[in-house]
């Protein structure tokens, strides 16, 4: 079967010769430092060979540039924008951060649109273009308006978040489909996305503090129009088949059929149980990062870190995230979901105690400078977060039904993001109840202690996670319980979009 596919791809055998050349190059560079450097090169070449180059470019732009680099600029810029320009309290900033994440909670809507509603004959490209324009307009507004009202500022930040979310779910639609058709490459796709995101975040956070110092948070928002513009470029460059004469009158029925299919799948024990665990594991990890950020920059109670230092600290955290992605890819990707999630959640809870040591200033008693200590804290925290996140992503891709991969994967990610929102608002409530303000941090140690205790509770919910490993199938590819009309639509969709299927058939996703 594989030989037939190769012959169909290239009757002259050029595809086979290319693979043989790659194998020869791999053998030549298999030793020493050269071999180590060639491993990722061959890996990217394999993905580019299996996928169309424009798709790989899209993954790098969306995950690496838009979410990674742009996310670093957005995070640091927004923190200083809320603190220095809008002058809000840390508990308020925590709540507003949750509001800006709402577009990620309604990801099923974006996924459903990309699955059943093509625009001008294309199923993915218009959504990239639309997402990029939203990002450019919202960031330009924040950058150019010096005295923007708080409500309008939050709306603009939310719109920018929506642009990133739409681009993310559009890429995820192809990625999830590829994880089903090529299950052996599912972990590689997750690693590609994680690697792109981690490297982008490293660069983004590294330069964010410098640019906040030089041009201010509003200037940083102006720089963020560049990643949004690259998303528009992805929309124009993506190799996607044109679909003329689409029956738009059937869109309503397709929405109904897809919703029925999602509900039927979601009711299965192998689906709703891990979904419940994913939500609770995030919701119970209370987010009090805004309180810690205000303490980091306070000249009296805290270490009074500068903008450059804050950006560098977050960039070190991205290094930890990158190490977590590498560790997962080369050492942990074949472990059973339940076992891996147990140890990562335990490490996540324990590592949070390091914040308590710093806030109580115990590190200074041992002669460890704040600057050095917080870098260790951030890198360990991001590494454990990445190790906890990646098996959940693989598990999510495994339980997506064929035909509505984008919609259902978006639904699963929205459940995770709902947990993140609950975590953010829960942390904001905790900061408010403990009366932690812009200048008062007496109870910050108690907030950290309570957060770390709550982080342990997901360990008692691991029975909701299947015992399967990433190489096994969790959800049957064809399910009799699915509505027959949905299955028919799925079959027709795959036959009419064979180029798109081949486009996403050979990549690993986030």
From TrEMBL:
Belongs to the major facilitator superfamily. Folate-biopterin transporter (TC 2.A.71) family. NCBIfam families: fbt. This is Folate-biopterin transporter 2. InterPro entries: BT1 (IPR039309), FBT (IPR004324), MFS_trans_sf (IPR036259). Residues 1-14 have a biased composition (Basic and acidic residues). Keywords: Membrane, Transmembrane, Transmembrane helix, Transport. It is found in: Membrane. Residues 15-24 have a biased composition (Acidic residues). Pfam families: BT1 (PF03092). It comes from Stylosanthes scabra. Residues 1-30 are annotated as: Disordered. It is a multi-pass membrane protein. The chain crosses the membrane at residues 53-75, 95-120, 127-144, 150-171, 192-212, 218-238, 276-297, 309-328, 340-362, 408-432, 444-465.
């Amino acid at each position: 079967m594989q030989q037939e596919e190769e012959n169909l791809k290239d009757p002259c055998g050029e595809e086979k010769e290319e693979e043989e050349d790659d194998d020869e190059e791999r053998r030549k560079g298999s030793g020493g430092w050269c071999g180590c450097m060639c491993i990722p090169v061959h890996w990217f070449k394999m993905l580019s060979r299996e996928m169309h180059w424009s798709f790989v470019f899209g993954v790098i732009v969306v995950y690496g540039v838009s979410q990674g680099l742009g996310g670093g600029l957005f995070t640091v810029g927004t923190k200083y924008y809320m603190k220095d320009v809008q002058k809000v309290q840390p508990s308020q900033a925590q709540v507003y951060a949750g509001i800006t994440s709402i577009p990620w909670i309604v990801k099923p809507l974006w996924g459903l649109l990309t699955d059943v509603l093509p625009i001008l004959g294309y199923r993915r490209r218009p959504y990239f273009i639309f997402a990029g324009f939203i990002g450019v307009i919202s960031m330009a507004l924040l950058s150019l308006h010096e005295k923007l009202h708080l409500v309008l500022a939050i709306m603009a930040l939310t719109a920018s978040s929506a642009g990133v979310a739409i681009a993310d779910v559009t890429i995820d639609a192809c990625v999830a489909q590829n994880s089903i058709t090529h299950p052996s490459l599912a972990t590689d796709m997750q690693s590609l996305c994680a690697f792109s995101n981690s490297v982008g975040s490293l660069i983004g956070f590294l330069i964010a503090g410098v640019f906040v110092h030089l041009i201010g948070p509003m200037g940083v928002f102006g720089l963020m129009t560049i990643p949004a513009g690259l998303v528009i470029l992805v929309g124009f460059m993506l190799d996607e088949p044109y679909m003329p004469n689409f029956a738009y009158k059937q869109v309503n029925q397709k929405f109904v059929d897809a919703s029925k299919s999602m509900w039927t799948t979601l009711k299965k024990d192998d689906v709703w149980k891990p979904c419940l665990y994913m939500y609770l594991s995030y919701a119970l990890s209370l987010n009090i990062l805004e309180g810690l950020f205000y303490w980091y920059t306070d000249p009296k109670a805290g270490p009074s870190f500068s903008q450059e230092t804050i950006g560098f600290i977050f960039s070190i955290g991205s290094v930890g995230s990158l190490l977590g992605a590498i560790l997962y890819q080369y050492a942990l990707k074949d472990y059973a979901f339940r076992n891996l999630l147990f140890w990562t959640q335990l490490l996540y809870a324990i590592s949070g105690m390091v914040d308590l040591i710093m806030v109580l200033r115990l590190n200074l008693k041992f002669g460890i400078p704040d600057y050095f200590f917080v870098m260790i804290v951030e890198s360990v925290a991001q590494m454990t977060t990445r190790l906890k996140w990646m098996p959940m992503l693989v598990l999510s891709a495994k339980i997506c039904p064929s035909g509505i991969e984008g919609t259902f994967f978006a639904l699963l990610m929205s459940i995770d993001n709902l947990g993140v929102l609950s975590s953010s608002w829960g942390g904001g409530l905790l900061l408010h109840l403990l009366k932690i303000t812009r200048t008062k941090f007496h109870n910050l140690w108690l907030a950290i202690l309570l957060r770390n205790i709550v982080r342990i509770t997901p360990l008692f919910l691991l029975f909701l996670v299947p015992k399967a490993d990433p190489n096994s199938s969790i959800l049957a590819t064809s399910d009799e319980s699915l509505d027959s009309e949905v299955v028919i639509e799925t079959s027709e969709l795959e036959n009419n979009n064979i180029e798109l299927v081949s486009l996403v058939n050979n990549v690993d996703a986030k």
